[in-house]
Amino acid sequence: MKLSFSPEDEKFREEIAGWLKANLTGEFEKLKFRGGPGDEHTYPDERVKWEQKLAEGKWTCVGWPKEYGGRGLSIEQQVIFFEEYARAGAPGRMGHIGEGLAGPTIIAFGSEHQKQKYLPGIVAGTELWCQGYSEPGAGSDLANVKTKARFDEAKGKWILNGQKVWTSLAHESHYCFVIARTDPESKAHKGLGFFLVKMDQPGITVRPIEQITGTSEFNEVFFDDAECDAEDIVGEPGDGWKVAMGLLGYERGVSTLGQQMAFQNELDEVVKVAKENGAAKDPVIRQRIADLYLRLKIMRYNSMRMLSDDAGDGSLQKEALIYKLYWATWHRELGELAVDVQGEMGQVIAAEPYELTRLQSLYLFVRSDTIYGGTNQVQRNIIAERGLGMPKEPKW
């Protein structure tokens, strides 16, 4: 990918930047720079309204094909959209799981019935999704899932039983895509199914997990004879692993550039505090700021290369394997710097109601970045085995 944009692309940049400036006002003004990591619990109702405002302007699902409600934007213009969205301080997306993961997966692997049933609600910002992958004994080791799905011939439905954990915004979601074992005798990645499950039904219980930030955007989800329509399994029984791996590829998509702009906003806030309180005069602090700045630029260039060198079928090349390890480590270090530039004030709360500041919350939340979505150790194994062709780690 070129590191510059065409005149047409720059005209598009002006369009989206202008729309955001005109619409992030009034009732949406307070949402600026809110709803990011560690702050996802803020203004959920207002951010749902913002999703629908985006939909009115046709700014949801911009990379989707036009026939499914998207704009069919080029990679370059998608990059511009996500960069300008973050630059404007627009809020964390309530619909990002549906738009970035569920929708593209349904488009790639789903039936026409599933596309007609689920895609319009995602585009309209009226139906939110969550992800049912991790379990108490199957976090980074996704192939170890224990949740079971059996087909009830009398009802003509799949019946799900099991537990998922670390399910972001499950309490706000209308649907969940769930990996479950369709063959009770199967092991590892075989015998799995990929299900589209309605959350508001008997047999599904959502319990919040309180984090060290004091917030609860993560949840446990329990399935006790929860039902899924026969036509709501994506692919065939046994295709679950293939579909799940296809979905994970979308986590390394163009929205990563928007993520990096959000990182830049956080770094800018840290630098502002360092300048205001004099911490920027400390040579060690200055060097840490410079190091994070340079590594953020490297992250951008690697992402541009990652996105341009696709395999021709929408999948990403092996370079994409490094991305999660790289950004998670970077973000954790930014959180540590955020506290250090505040000195002793970074470790205390001045007065009631004893709520964490934005930078304190950032520091605490990013401790999880190197754990969820595959721990750093697992990411290194993936790079070694899939990227470099090294022998697999021995099973004990």
Overview in brief:
The chain is an alpha+beta fold and 396 residues long. The protein has eleven helices and seven strands.
List the helices and strands and how they pair.
Elements: H1 7-23, H2 44-56, H3 75-87, H4 96-109, H5 112-124, E1 129-132, E2 148-152, E3 157-164, E4 175-181, E5 192-198, E6 204-208, E7 219-229, H6 240-250, H7 255-277, H8 283-308, H9 323-340, H10 358-365, H11 376-387
Parallel strand pairs: 1-4
Antiparallel strand pairs: 2-3, 3-7, 4-5, 6-7
Helix pairs in contact: 1-3, 3-7, 4-5, 4-6, 7-8, 7-9, 8-9, 9-10
Protein name: Alkylation response protein AidB-like acyl-CoA dehydrogenase
Cofactor: FAD
GO molecular function, one term: flavin adenine dinucleotide binding
Q: Main β-sheet: number of strands, strand sense, barrel status?
A: 4 strands, antiparallel
**Rounded average pLDDT:** 90
Radius of gyration: 21 Å
CATH homology superfamily of the largest domain: Butyryl-CoA Dehydrogenase, subunit A, domain 3
Low-pLDDT parts are none
Termini separation (Å)?
Answer: 43 Å
Q: Please, how many helices? A: 11
In the CATH hierarchy, the architecture of the largest domain is Up-down Bundle
Strand content: 5-15%
Query: Tally of extended strands?
Result: 7
- CATH fold title of the largest domain: Butyryl-CoA Dehydrogenase, subunit A, domain 3
| Alpha-beta content class | alpha+beta
Gross geometry: globular
